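Quick log. Single chain, no ligands specified.
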Amino acid sequence: MRKTCTTSALLAGLLLCACTQKGAKTEALRSVKADTVRAYGATPVSAFPGKVKASAEVNLSFKVAGKIAQMHAGEGDFVRRGQALANIDNRDYKVQLAATEAEYH
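-> predicted structure:
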């Protein structure tokens, strides 16, 4: 009986030594399962107090005053440099031009 216990202990020791390498780190690999928690039957909603502000603001102005006749870009639209954003109603300027030309001729 004693010979069997000694042999079993020796065999177990050899198996343990054979499983590791000298100088190598022994790290146990563990698998991890990740999942997203959601409310059952409801759409998840997150609410955070605060104010939303644009990262950059631009003040626009025209060379002449007047009523805007047509807008080419809306709030939040991406625009490029030099792109026309709006047209001004030019009827008042046409009347003034006609009066000036009549006076000149």
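The chain has a mean pLDDT of 78.
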